[in-house]
């Protein structure tokens, strides 16, 4: 089922008597909410985009806010703080239903306590365990809640709804298809060539177009290329010339016929993953591993399996910058959702010059794939054409959330299995993640209490605690001041790679204890988190990271799952079970050694 951004599948009606005027105002403020929701793109890892605009009864914008990153202050909290006393009787416009999933419902509470009387929501949250929860909570507090396409249906609100869908298209696609949102980008000449017959391709597009590509990379969790691109172009795949979010670089190569010298093997600033066929060039795999490059083997290397793996890693948005062979395979696999084609006003000719998409098996023009909601933009001398290969997923009629289903049928429980997986903060048990937005207050070596924005901030900074070097001390403070858990993690991991001499010498033997202390503080000071943890009694907790074999469970259960084990140990302690024979417990010696 899909939703074309160009038109609704059902007739448009208008419920209000003065619908045209009121809906036009609602649409205007909602488009603004969607616009500001996109402001963090390129600065943090892709995440759901939330924007909030507070409007007084007189029609004046009193406050705005947007989510900078997962784990930072909600957009709604920022907007009502900016509006202050002007929130009384005001209307709040949210491009998407709040995604509070930690039990504290900060966004909902902020709107209620500020005196907001009406909330207009662009779209319901696409994740089933969150869908409808905030809307019901707001209505239970007697706020008027209107949802575009449900309570407000008119021509005036159609474009506003389109804006809300576009700004969160990656999340919508990911929720519907269970693979990350994928964009295929290429630059070609006017006669459809991505390189000369010799393979030379620098530069087809203009500098302005290349700057736009930097922006596209910054909006992505990862950038994918094939082996041919590595051999021919030796790319760096950086997001921009300094600063901001840096996407993972991923190389797909079946045979690992790759050069030993390549820019992508330098992981000083950003990591690289090489995905390959199981058993391919084991000696080269060892070489890559020695350089710090992560190698992931697949039984059969194909785009669909790779994308399902990246979905499991929690990725939201992927940019493909590959050649024609791999792009054709990705399109045929159905994993490409959108296309960005930069067309340069150049003609190079050549019957052997490569084209952006290889063989798709089509023999008639009627078989051609047509883009949906096509946009055109001139960038310098080039023309950028973009559009969707598949409609943005239509999540209506709304699938009942687990909470709603349980009311209908009490025998239905969220988890039939006794294994509970958690990973990303938007998961049902996302509060178990180190990246959840729960500040902790811990004493330092001098006995002074400091506040850390998240467990991840605390953990990353403590790699450098106690090192007698001003640079290490500065690193600790920089990490503690990081705007988001993701930024704290990036800073800690990057400094560990670039300046290993600053890492405390016994870090490997104390890191479990550092994590344990931070988790114990977190689940001790937040009653709703403690309740959530105790509610899992009898279940095995597994951090579902497919690549972290120390803290996570791995792809096939081969990981040590120390994060899950620490949480189970804390659960046991909170329940008053002091048994040391429990399989979930970790002994003091294990915490000292950092090993099983």
Outline the structure in words.
- By secondary structure, the chain is α/β, with parallel strands linked by helices.
- It contains 19 helices and 20 strands.
- The two termini are 47 Å apart.
- The protein is globular and about 70 Å long.
- The strands form 5 sheets. It has a 9-stranded mixed beta sheet with strand order 11-10-9-8-12-7-13-15-14.
- The model is unreliable at 1-18, 397-416, 578-585 and 587-596 (pLDDT under 50).
- It folds into 3 domains: 2-167, Cytidine Deaminase, domain 2 (3-Layer(aba) Sandwich); 174-392, Dihydrofolate Reductase, subunit A (3-Layer(aba) Sandwich); 415-593, Orthogonal Bundle (Tetracycline Repressor, domain 2), CATH 1.10.357.
- The chain has helices spanning 19-37, 75-83, 106-114, 133-140, 155-167, 169-177, 207-218, 227-233, 282-290, 303-312, 324-332, 402-408, 455-461, 470-480, 485-498, 507-525, 527-534, 562-574, 588-593; strands at residues 2-3, 51-55, 61-66, 91-96, 118-123, 144-147, 181-189, 222-226, 248-252, 272-277, 294-298, 317-320, 338-344, 372-379, 382-388, 392-393, 419-422, 440-443, 449-452, 540-543.
- Helix 2 (75-83) packs parallel to helix 3 and helix 13 (455-461) packs antiparallel against helix 14 (470-480).
What is the secondary structure topology, with strand pairs?
Elements: E1 2-3, H1 19-37, E2 51-55, E3 61-66, H2 75-83, E4 91-96, H3 106-114, E5 118-123, H4 133-140, E6 144-147, H5 155-167, H6 169-177, E7 181-189, H7 207-218, E8 222-226, H8 227-233, E9 248-252, E10 272-277, H9 282-290, E11 294-298, H10 303-312, E12 317-320, H11 324-332, E13 338-344, E14 372-379, E15 382-388, E16 392-393, H12 402-408, E17 419-422, E18 440-443, E19 449-452, H13 455-461, H14 470-480, H15 485-498, H16 507-525, H17 527-534, E20 540-543, H18 562-574, H19 588-593
Parallel strand pairs: 4-5, 5-6, 7-12, 7-13, 8-9, 8-12, 9-10, 10-11, 17-20
Antiparallel strand pairs: 1-16, 2-3, 2-4, 13-15, 14-15, 18-19
Helix pairs in contact: 1-5, 2-3, 13-14, 13-15, 14-15, 16-17, 16-18
């Amino acid at each position: 089922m899909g939703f074309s951004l160009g038109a609704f599948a059902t007739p448009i009606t208008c419920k209000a008597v003065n619908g045209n005027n009121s809906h036009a105002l609602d649409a205007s403020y909602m488009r603004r909410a969607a616009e500001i929701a996109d402001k963090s793109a390129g600065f943090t890892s892709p995440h759901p985009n939330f924007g909030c605009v507070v409007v007084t009864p007189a029609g004046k914008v009193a406050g705005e806010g947007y989510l900078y990153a997962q784990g930072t202050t909600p957009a709604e909290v920022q907007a009502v703080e900016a509006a202050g006393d002007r929130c009384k009787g005001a209307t709040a416009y949210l491009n998407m239903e709040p995604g509070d999933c930690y039990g504290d419902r900060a966004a909902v509470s902020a709107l209620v306590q500020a005196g907001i009387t009406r909330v207009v929501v662009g779209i319901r949250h696409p994740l089933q365990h969150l869908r409808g929860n905030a809307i019901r909570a707001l209505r239970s507090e007697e706020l008027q809640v209107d949802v575009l396409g449900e309570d407000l249906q008119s021509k005036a609100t159609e474009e506003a709804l389109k804006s809300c869908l576009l700004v969160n298209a990656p999340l919508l696609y990911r929720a519907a298809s269970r693979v990350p949102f994928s964009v295929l980008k290429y630059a070609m000449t006017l006669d459809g060539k991505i390189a000369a017959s010799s393979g030379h391709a620098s530069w087809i597009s203009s500098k302005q177009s290349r700057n736009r590509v930097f922006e596209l990379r910054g909006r992505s969790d990862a950038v994918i290329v094939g082996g041919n691109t590595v051999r021919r172009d030796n790319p760096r795949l950086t997001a921009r010339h300094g600063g901001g979010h840096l996407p993972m670089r991923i190389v797909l190569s079946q045979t690992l016929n790759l050069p030993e010298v390549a820019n992508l093997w330098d992981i000083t600033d950003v990591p690289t993953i090489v995905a390959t066929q199981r058993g391919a060039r084991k000696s080269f795999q060892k070489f890559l591993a020695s350089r710090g490059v992560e190698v992931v083997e697949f039984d059969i290397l194909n785009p669909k399996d790779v994308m399902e793996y990246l979905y499991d890693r929690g990725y939201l948005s992927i940019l493909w910058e590959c050649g024609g062979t791999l792009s054709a395979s990705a399109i045929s696999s159905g994993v490409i959702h959108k296309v960005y084609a930069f067309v340069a006003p150049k003609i190079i000719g050549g019957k052997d010059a490569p084209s952006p998409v290889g063989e798709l098996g089509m023999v008639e023009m009627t078989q051609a794939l047509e883009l949906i909601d096509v946009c055109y933009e001139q960038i310098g001398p080039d023309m950028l054409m973009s559009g969707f290969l598949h409609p943005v997923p239509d999540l209506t009629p709304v699938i009942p959330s687990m909470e709603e289903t349980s009311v209908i049928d009490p025998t239905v429980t969220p988890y039939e299995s006794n294994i509970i997986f958690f990973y990303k903060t938007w998961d049902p048990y996302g509060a178990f993640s180190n990246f959840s937005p729960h500040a902790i207050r811990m004493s330092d070596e001098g006995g002074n209490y400091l506040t850390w924005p998240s467990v991840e901030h605390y953990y990353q900074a403590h790699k450098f605690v106690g090192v007698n070097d001003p640079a290490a001390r500065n690193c600790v403070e920089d990490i503690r001041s990081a705007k988001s858990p993701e930024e704290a993690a990036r800073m800690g991991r990057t400094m560990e790679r670039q300046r290993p001499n600053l890492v405390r010498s016994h870090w490997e033997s104390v890191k479990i204890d550092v994590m344990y202390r931070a988790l114990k503080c977190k689940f001790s000071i937040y009653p709703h988190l403690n309740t959530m943890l105790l509610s899992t009694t009898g279940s095995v907790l597994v951090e579902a990271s497919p690549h972290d074999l120390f803290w996570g469970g791995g792809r096939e259960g081969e990981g040590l799952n120390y994060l899950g084990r620490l949480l189970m140990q804390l659960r046991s302690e909170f329940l008053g079970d002091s048994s040391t024979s429990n399989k979930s417990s970790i002994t003091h010696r294990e915490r000292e050694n950092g090993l099983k």
